[in-house]
Structures are given as C-alpha cells and as structure tokens.
Design a protein that fits this description.
Elements (H helix, E strand, L loop, with lengths): L1 H4 L7 H7 L5 H15 L6 H8 L3 H13 L3 E8 L2 E8 L2 H6 L7 E2 L13 H14 L5 H12 L5 H13 L5 H13 L5 H8 L2 H14 L8 H13 L4 H9 L9 H18 L10 H29 L1 H22 L3 H25 L31 H15 L1
Helix pairs in contact: 3-5, 4-5, 7-9, 9-10, 16-17, 16-19, 17-18
Length: 414
C-alpha cells in the first residue's frame, strides 16, 4: 500500500480545461477513479466502482456513456458468464489534437480480455448511440440482437442507428418494433440513409413536430388541418426552432385553456420584437457565462441548505452524527482493503456494517419525524442536478426556465 500511494495518476490538462468544467461531478469522479486504476494496471467492475464512489451502478454506466459521447473513452462490449461485460479504453486527447504518441490504457473487468462481439468500430459506435437514444444501458440479449442485424442480416450500422432515431422520435422504444422497421427497410432495398430519407420524405418529420407540440399543450390527438398550417407557418415562414416553439407552448401553463391561438400570438410578438432589434428569433437572451454562474449558485445553495438540515438533525439526534462519521471511516477503510487486495476478507464485513449503520440512521430519522432523505442535497432540477446537462450529455429541459431566472438574478447581482 505504501508503494501504491507513492504513485501518481496523470490527468491531461485538456481534460481539466475543456471537459471538466461542464461535466457533472459524479461523472468526473468515475473518470478520474477509473483512470487511476487503468494507468496502474488494475481492474474494477461497475459494481465495485459504485461501492467505492458511493454511486449507483446505473450512474456509473451513465458516466461511461457520457465520456464516450465526449470522445474520451471507448467501450467494448463482450459476452461474459451469460451476460454482457464492457472494457473501457481511455483515449489520449493530447495524441488526438497534436499527434503526439500516447499509449491508450485499458481497464478490463477482472483483468480478462474477451472476444469482442462488436466486430468493428462502426458497430461499437452504433451501440453507444443506441444507449444514448434509449436513455439507458442495453441488456446482453438486446446487444446480441442488434449486432445480429448487422452480422447475420448484413444491415449497415448507420441504417440501424437511423432506425433507432426514427422510432424513438415516434415514441416507439420497443426493440421488437425497431427490428420490424429495420428489416422492413432492408427487404425494400433501402440500404442507405439517403434512400430511407427519400422514402420517408418530409411527412414524418412534420408528423413528429406536430405530435411534440400537441403533447406540450396537453393534447393527445392528431392536429387539425388549421393547426398544421399554423405550425408550418411558425417553422417555415417565421423561422422558429423547435426549442423556441416549445418555450412559447410553456407560456400556456398560466391560462385555463391552452390553445394554438395563444401560442401563435406569443410567437408573433417575439417575431415582431426580433424584427425591430434585428436579432435572430431563436437568439438566447442570457449569456452562457451568466447561466453557468446561476447554475453554480443553485448548486451551492442546495449544498448549503442540505448542510443546515444535517446540523438540525444532529442537534435533535446526536447519534446520527456518530453514524455519519463511522460510515465515512468505513468507506475509507473499504478503499484501502480494495487496494491491498483484501476485498473478500475485509471488504464484505465492512459493507455489511455500513448497511447496518445506514438502516439504523433511517430508523432514527423516521422515529423523530424526519424524512429519510431529509439531509440529502435537493437540487431544483432532479434531471441534471442543476448543471444544465443531463446524464446523456444533452441540454436539460430546465434550461429555458433557468435562463429566465438567471436574467432576473443577474440584474439583482449588479
């Protein structure tokens, strides 16, 4: 252990400056913790990651998906004990940007290398895209089914990728349904995305627009002819983006009967205002710098409030403070046990002790009329934890509302 703690983990400045500032904190923990183990030839499963970092396995898997989308890691799926495993390969950004030689390090669960079921880079990219589109990790059976379309049926990966985009946009996420679409296109000889686009023409894109707007207004029906003409006018003549139209739909929450005429009036007013100022109709009114500062303020506020609630609990139930300190101490010992290779002999009893303490903590809180999650950090937006970026690395739906709040907050700060 003494030798291990004298080692260093190299983190590229490109990561620190370009990727770290906008990444969720838990994802940064996964990246750096994995980098340390990979650089020193050690391996961890997602389950072990979750235990050591205090995260859920899904959060760890989502973190890998996020970093893969950012281009910092590659994931290789493989068959393992009847299920699916994954190897994570870190990519040198310095080598990519400047052409400098750098060896990629590989973090393989249990130190084993297995046959790669993906076949080539295109299929690996496909599977990563599928997870992003579905918003979840794919199961081993789904993995083998999707790769089967490519390997057994000879369908191009880009066609499968396009099919997932197309079906999910239409609200169809069943693998069986998507398979029927993929094979239907294949049987019709639609072997390129261009041919599929010609086949679908423009109707499906507009269908998606109509459906999305109707949902935003709380309608579960098809659009009328008059409504479709009005929506086409918003996009084709007035030049609004989907985000801006949905923002206008959000204005109807304050009225008793949401309707298209109200949304149309909002968009007309915005269009007239943009013409007077010469600004683009879709231009954001708050700078990203101010928005990021506001998000930071919200996170700090949530953290401070959680600390205050925790102190409140400590005053009423002093035993909870002791439990929290003991849990923290056990967590540190667990990390040392893992590094010393004593996971089985010492790790299991310590995890059981930690679970017992957590159960005792929960009972003490409820017996004293506190919610179990009373001391947890409670963010304003649970989707992005007040970062503006979801687990998939996409812009969160809360951004429009936060931009309005940031504008008022910025004025008060002056």
């Amino acid at each position: 252990m003494k030798d291990f703690y004298l080692l260093d983990t190299k983190v590229e400045n490109i990561f620190i400056n370009e990727f770290m500032p906008q990444a969720p904190g838990d994802y940064i923990k996964v990246y750096i913790y994995g980098l340390m183990h990979a650089q020193h030839g050690m391996s961890l499963s997602d389950k072990m990651f979750a235990q050591q970092l205090g995260l859920s396995e899904k959060k760890v898997q989502d973190a890998w998906g996020y970093w893969e989308k950012q281009g910092l890691v590659n994931r290789t799926f493989y068959s393992h004990n009847g299920g699916a495993g994954v190897n994570v390969e870190y990519i040198s950004q310095k080598a990519l940007m400047y052409g400098m030689s750098a060896e990629a390090v590989d973090e393989s669960p249990e130190g084993e290398h297995h046959e790669n079921l993906l076949g080539d880079e295109a299929v690996k990219t496909l599977l990563g895209h599928v997870e992003q589109v579905l918003g979840r990790s794919i199961s081993s059976s789904e993995l083998l089914r999707i790769t089967g379309w490519v390997k057994d049926d000879g369908i191009a990966p880009e066609i499968v990728s396009f099919a997932f985009d197309y079906c999910v946009q239409k609200g169809k996420t069943s693998i069986k349904y998507i398979e029927s679409v993929v094979k239907s296109w294949h049987s019709e000889g639609l072997d390129t995305v261009d041919k599929i686009n010609e086949h679908l023409q423009d109707s499906d894109e507009r269908f998606y627009r109509y459906k999305r707007i109707l949902q935003a207004l709380g309608f579960h029906r098809n659009a009328t002819e008059a409504e479709t003409k009005m929506m086409d006018h918003w996009f084709d003549d007035m030049g609004f983006s989907m985000d801006k139209v949905l923002e206008a739909c959000g204005k109807t929450t304050g009225i008793s009967n949401p309707n298209f005429s109200y949304v149309n009036k909002v968009l007309e007013n915005w269009s007239e205002s943009s013409e007077k100022t010469g600004a683009d109709v879709n231009e954001e009114k708050v700078s990203m710098g101010l928005l990021n500062k506001y998000y930071e303020y919200l996170r700090q506020k949530a953290d401070k409030e959680a600390g205050q609630r925790t102190e409140q609990v400590y005053k009423v139930i002093p035993r909870v403070r002791d439990i929290d300190n003991e849990i923290q101490s056990i967590g540190a010992k667990l990390s040392k046990a893992l590094l010393m290779g004593e996971e089985r002999s010492k790790g299991i009893p310590m995890r059981r002790k930690m679970e017992t303490l957590q159960e005792e903590r929960a009972v003490l809180l409820t017996e004293n009329n506190f919610e179990v999650d009373f001391t947890d950090i409670k963010y304003k937006c649970s989707k992005c934890n007040d970062t503006g970026i979801t687990d998939l690395g996409e812009r969160c739906t809360c951004v429009p509302d936060r931009m309005k709040e940031a504008a008022a907050w910025g004025k008060n700060m002056k």
